[in-house]
């Protein structure tokens, strides 16, 4: 069973953290979930990775602020910048020494990029590998929901307007009855050809545990983030990017641009898969994750192999 603990942040927010493996492991793998989800999203990764790596790895999952079992926050802190700072705080508290491999799905991948942007010295000293799962470095630039441009514009207008309303609803949670009614819509939006019933139930449960403030509040920050220049400064850190060719939120062009910016990235496009790759294509995600960890153990941290610590003030 994983060890459960809390990390208390400077603004009083409490993050729920789960840790598996020895404190003196050779590498710490940190799994960051997506928007409106929680650490349970990685239920098909934790045990297989632990079994494959044994005592060599320590595995950390945590619920982002306003998500899962973590506490809610003030609206002004519902930003990717804050999530990048939160990641720095989690590493300091839970994995203060040794190399780390950061694995991020969707919002989690964007959090990793923000951490690299805002804490370049810490990143250089600690991060030995990266795995980006169904994420983007370009905000909503490529998000078209698989629909026509005209319909996409209407959906985005409705989405951003609705997000503003939800953001003002504080720590309230979505009604479960409403989410059950919306389950077919979530299935269409988030999954590709195949979807196990347990995964759509878990996803619906995670959304039910996200505060309305986090569901609405993070939308603006997510839409405008651009971190390709940050990725381009990360030297030759081992990396992988995975995307489904049916992903309606972060389509293949998002992963391709990540791989273009960070040439060490091994790109995998999963046919028939949607946005929830760690559930839909667990074998492919686990293989990529283990490959990066093994490359990281050989290569060492970015401080050993050429990370360029740039001035973060030059990027928008």
From TrEMBL:
SUPFAM superfamilies in alphabetical order: alpha/beta-Hydrolases (SSF53474)
Domain of life: Bacteria
Molecular functions (GO terms): hydrolase activity
Keyword entries, A-Z: Hydrolase
Keyword field contains Hydrolase: yes
Domain called AB hydrolase-1: residue spans: 29-288
Pfam families registered for this protein in UniProt: Abhydrolase_6
Record Gene3D superfamilies: alpha/beta hydrolase (3.40.50.1820)
Protein name, entry field: Alpha/beta fold hydrolase
């Amino acid at each position: 069973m994983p060890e459960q603990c809390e990390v208390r942040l400077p603004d009083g927010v409490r993050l729920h953290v789960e840790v598996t493996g020895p404190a003196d492991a050779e590498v710490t793998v940190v799994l960051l979930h997506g928007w409106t989800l929680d650490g349970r999203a990685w239920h098909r990764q934790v045990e297989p990775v632990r079994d494959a790596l044994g005592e060599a790895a320590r595995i950390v999952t945590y619920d982002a602020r306003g998500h899962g079992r973590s506490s809610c926050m003030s609206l002004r802190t519902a930003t990717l910048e804050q999530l990048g700072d939160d990641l720095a705080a989690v590493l300091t508290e839970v994995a203060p020494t040794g190399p780390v491999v950061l694995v991020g799905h969707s919002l989690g991948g964007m959090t990793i990029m923000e951490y690299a942007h805002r804490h370049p010295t810490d990143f250089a000293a600690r991060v030995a590998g990266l795995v980006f799962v169904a994420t983007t470095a370009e905000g909503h630039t490529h998000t078209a929901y698989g629909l026509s441009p005209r319909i996409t514009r209407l959906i985005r207008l409705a989405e951003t307007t609705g997000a503003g309303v939800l953001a003002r609803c504080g720590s309230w949670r979505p009604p479960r009855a409403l989410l059950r009614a919306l389950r077919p819509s979530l299935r269409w939006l988030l999954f590709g050809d195949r979807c196990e019933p347990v995964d759509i139930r878990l996803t619906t449960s995670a959304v039910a545990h996200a505060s309305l403030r986090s569901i609405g509040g993070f939308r603006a920050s997510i839409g405008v983030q651009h971190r390709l220049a940050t990725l381009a400064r990360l030297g030759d850190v081992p990396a992988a990017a995975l995307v489904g060719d049916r992903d309606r939120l972060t389509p293949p062009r998002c992963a391709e641009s990540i791989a273009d910016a960070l040439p060490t990235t091994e790109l995998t496009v999963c046919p028939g898969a949607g946005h929830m790759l760690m559930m839909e294509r667990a074998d492919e995600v686990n293989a990529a994750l283990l490959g990066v960890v093994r490359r990281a153990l050989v290569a060492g941290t970015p401080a050993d192999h050429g990370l360029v610590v740039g001035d973060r003030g030059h990027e928008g």
